[in-house]
Predict the 3D structure of the following.
Amino acid sequence: MSEQAIVDPDIGYQLIPTEASDYATQVDHLYYGLLGLSALLIAILVGLIAVFGFRYHRSRTGARRPRIAGKAGHRIEIGFAAMLALFFMGLFYWGSHLYMDVYGDEPSDITINVIGKQWMWKVQHPDGTREINTLHVPVGESVTLRLTSQDVIHSFSIPALRLKRDAVPGFYTTARFTASQTGEFRLFCAEYCGNDHSRMRGRVVVMSRADYEDWLTRHGEGPSPAVAGKQLFQSHGCTGCHQDSAGAPAPALDGLYGRTVPLEGGDTIVADEAYIRDSILQPQKHVVAGFQPIMPSFSGQISESEIFQMIAYIKSLQPGDWHQDDASGATQ
Amino acid sequence: MITASHAEHASGHYLSHDWTLRGWLLTVDHKRIAWLYAASITGFFFLGGLAALLIRLELITAPGDLLSSETYNKMFSLHGIVMVWFFLIPSIPATLGNFLMPMMVGAKDMAFPKLNLLSWYIYTVGGIFTLAAVIAGGVDTGWTFYTPFSSLFSNSAVIAAATGVFVVGFSSILTGLNFIVTTHTMRAPGLTWKRLPLFVWANYATGLIMVLATPVLTVTLLLLGLERGLGIGIFDPALGGDPLLFQHLFWFYSHPAVYIMILPAMGVVSEIIACFSRNPVFGYKGMVISIAAIALFGFVVWGHHMFVSGQSLYAGILFSFFTFLVAVPSAVKTLNWTATLFRGHIWFSAPMIYALSFLGLFTIGGLTGVFLAALALDVHLHDTYFVTAHFHYIMVGGAVTAYLGGLHFWWPKMTGRMYSELWSKVAALALFIGFNLTFYPQFLLGYSGMPRRYHDYPEAFEFLHILSSLGSGVLAIGYLLPLVYLGWSLWRGPRAPANPWDAYGLEWLADSPPIKHNFTETPKVTGGPYVYD
Ligand code: HEM
Ligand SMILES: [Cu+2]
């Protein structure tokens, strides 16, 4: 396993990595701003030490001259602290603003699932195409990465996009970007994850829309995640409780995604991806009002990538979908 | 100001009176305990240094060729664990602090001398567990022990190593307790809080952090042990646990812990700069307020280690805000040290060169901390060599440099001997140059994307890694030299007078080396510190 080949993209050393998105350029501006401020402060510090060290060297000083009086001293301290605090608040705002761009939850054009595992990255495209240690994306379109891990914590890091996000087992995290430049860029695992952590790296390939589609058709295999999810839904016997029309012991799932679900005990919860995931793996965590806690856990029977497919299926269900299925006398 | 009588005494000094194994291992004299600690942490420093050397050798070439990835991972884990818990946390407090806190407040000893000795024994037991972990094949979790890697996946000696750290925490708590009670109850007549040297203030604040934060680490490691041993599931998502909870708990201790490392260093530097510019520290009150502010705000910034971890967006923003705030008091201190030089009588002695190196390196460390506090920049820089460089500038460039400065400053007091002026300056310069050569390139590596804890890396990063490894050679000379000339001075150095630097502070009233109970007569204090003119 450790001898798996690494495909480092062919890029030489770059003091400032390629700015492969507008966001990367904006982060660099923040960097330059801070570099400027630091250079100024360090120049003043070193300058003062040099000047004082020379001017007030013990070989050169005669009679003592009065030091700065206490009051003036306080004013200098407070003025300096206030000035810095002001600068810092500006930087705080600047940094936070950009942070919301990558980690906020506005919708994207494409959502790609990424699963970390010792020691590789598994990527699932919306149409079901999969790849390992490489991420192909179209240029100019906003992409949301939805990350999780199958074992330990990993971190998906793309320096050219100034982007990084941990993949945490048991949770979903997201990160968003819009690449503005085609080309190949570095991909690293940035969170230490065991023996071959440093070999858990690869490439991000940004392509034109046409090339991306071409790539998908050449590599596409198998059904889309929603279709695959539907098959899993049946083969794991979920339909038995959830979908048998009359008097089903479990809630129907069509139109579930995004709805507010009332829980046993009076709370409510929004049915997002994490909720669906929890319901599959830890069904007792949130029991829907009016139902018995009888659902078994599928933990250990369904892999992270299959859970992504199930979620895709459930998300694809519109309100009333299952009734139509029944009415038209289709399957199940 | 200060008065004390230099009466004749027959008993000899603290080193001479009982030079037996028993006299050392059962001593309750804070000055001897300081030496027990000094010897132990020096041993651990060179053990951690050896691991670092292997790391730097491996990184000279891009492919992972010298060490296997398992060995490499064990080396950086050993390096981190030893340097943080067995060297840096005890460094200044347990050696210089132990020696000087009672003397600076004009006391005969710590408030609890036996607890003081106990803390060294606990430290030793913790050290033995850690060495046992190494002998049992080592540990590969990194010093951060992140779950679920440490709890479910690592095949190494995690329990032994975590037990070592768990145990050593108690020694830190006892030292902290002693500092707090000593400062409150043992001050000489007339030594009011406003007259305390900044070194005492800094160690007092450090004591508070030790007592308040360390128990959280203790509990965290206990939970880790239970999780790994019994699978209680608190951090395991498959059992409904939360792996990020571990990070919250870990950093709730470990962020304040970085202030355990840096506050005492700030105390040392304040004493040295005042002495060798023959000026009172500029803005004494501002300095004390900054110490308090750092200690306080240090408790609310832990989440800045988790900006990319998946903690909520708003938690990230709040932690960023507090992190910017905590940088302000540090900056004020830097301003005040610099202003202390103004219209002084500056003497570039070896301790002063160390102190000024501290000033420069700490400033770079602090400013790069501000880069990391800016959220979007941290997303890019987190877990890269930029972070490695940042905290080495603070912990090594700052804290270790100050420790060496303090060791030189008080060496004559502790040993009664003077060391070589020339060699000490050479060592201080080698440290400054070697340090920058080692760690400055790492900032550049980090911004260009080089991740931390990589054993094998893209060839493009090789040149800067070579520079860094070269620098570490120079740095090693800077650390080895003092061992030689300080060691030499013990036998051959000229006898030191009571106050070789003409410094202020109660410790300089005692003999060099001091008598067993420090002072023949309790000193009386009638004025503030740093009455240089
Ligand atoms: C001027 C004040 C400081 C600021 C604003 C600051 C800021 C930061 C930030 C935001 C990080 C997180 C970086 C990341 O992991 O992405 C960080 C990491 C770190 N800082 Fe600081 N810091 C400051 C002072 C210190 C001090 C005084 C120390 C130690 C004595 C220190 C030691 C560390 C360490 C050890 C880490 C990395 C821990 C790890 O991930 O292993 N910092 N700092
Ligand atoms: Cu990884």
User: Anything to note?
Assistant: The pocket of copper (II) ion (ligand 2) is lined by residues A 116, 154, 189, 191, 193, 197, 200 (CB under 6 Å). Chain B is about 65% helix and 0% strand. Confidence is low (pLDDT under 50) at residues 1-10 of chain B. The two ends of chain B are 13 Å apart (CA to CA).
